[in-house]
Specification:
Strand content: under 5%
Distance between the termini: 64 Å
Largest sheet: none
Radius of gyration: 26 Å
CATH architecture of the largest domain: Orthogonal Bundle
Helix content: over 70%
């Protein structure tokens, strides 16, 4: 009899645990759904206005087609492969330029952030180049590199470098000196000091700079393609404008927005993976 009571108590305990777990899951889902609605309701409102205003005649549909027409055009262009060719061309240029910027800016940022003498010699040149308008330099890049792929990649490289460089320098300089002193007092080698303290501590700042650099890379490559290119999203949008293909123009702009959002969330994921040791800290979406 006592054994049956004991088993019954165990069953009740397990049931209560299961109920408690389900309640926690339901609360978690409600919080996630509530947070998601808070984030996207304004986007839905924007698209609703986009759909309604041309239909009721507030805005001339010749200059702003409805959202549904734009989406339909975007789907048709994607299915036919016409738009994908231009997206791929822009992505290739952005990735190559951004990759070169990371390869150059991160080591240079570590050098400038760690060695004060090196920074004193290079800071004036870096600040002068960084504060020069990129769009004012576009004609120079086209003049020296021509209208081929080299000029687009060089422009993206130049534009993406500065955010990555400045954030890397900031990340190195803002490392708590106590960690450095403690490591040196224990006889840690320079290699271990860099790999175990400097690099991990500066990674969040570097990744934040990379997110900004990636955003600039996409913007710059579009501008460069509008000035001198025969492929790419920038060329596609401008060509649609010149030929008064308004739905195609808005479809290209919408695809650019989707592409930028996807790149941003990809970099957010990379940031979470690179800074997993920070714990579950929510990262803001830039």
């Amino acid at each position: 009899m006592s054994g049956e009571i004991f088993e019954y108590k165990d069953v009740l305990k397990l049931r209560n645990i299961a109920i408690g777990t389900n309640i926690k899951r339901i609360r978690y889902l409600k919080e996630k759904i509530g947070t998601g609605l808070q984030r996207i309701w304004l986007v839905f409102a924007f698209f609703a206005l986009w759909e309604i205003l041309p239909r009721i005649g507030v805005i001339d549909p010749m200059f702003l087609p409805t959202f549904s027409e734009t989406v339909t055009t975007l789907v048709n262009l994607t299915v036919s492969g016409k738009l994908l060719v231009h997206i791929w061309a822009s992505m290739q240029r952005s990735i190559l330029g951004f990759g070169l910027a990371v390869l150059v800016a991160v080591p240079l940022g570590f050098l400038m952030g760690w060695y004060n003498r090196f920074e004193r010699h290079t800071d004036l040149l870096v600040q002068s180049l960084r504060n020069t308008s990129l769009f004012a330099l576009l004609p120079l890049f086209l003049l020296f590199f021509g209208i081929g792929e080299a000029s687009k990649i060089a422009i993206v490289f130049y534009g993406a470098t500065w955010h990555i460089l400045i954030n890397t320098i900031s990340g190195v300089k803002n490392i708590d000196p106590i960690y450095i002193k403690a490591a040196k007092s224990m006889g840690v080698s320079d290699k271990d000091l860099f790999s175990k303290i400097i690099l991990p501590a500066s990674t969040p700042s570097i990744v934040a700079g990379a997110r900004l650099g990636a955003k600039i890379a996409v913007m710059v490559v579009i501008a460069a393609e509008m000035i001198g290119a025969k492929s790419g999203l920038g060329f596609f949008i401008q060509n649609a404008q010149y030929n008064f293909m308004i739905p195609e123009m808005y479809a290209g702009i919408l695809s650019l927005a989707i592409l930028g959002l996807a790149v941003n969330y990809l970099l957010v994921w990379v940031e979470k993976k690179a800074t997993y040791w920070k714990g579950n800290i929510d990262n803001a979406i830039l």
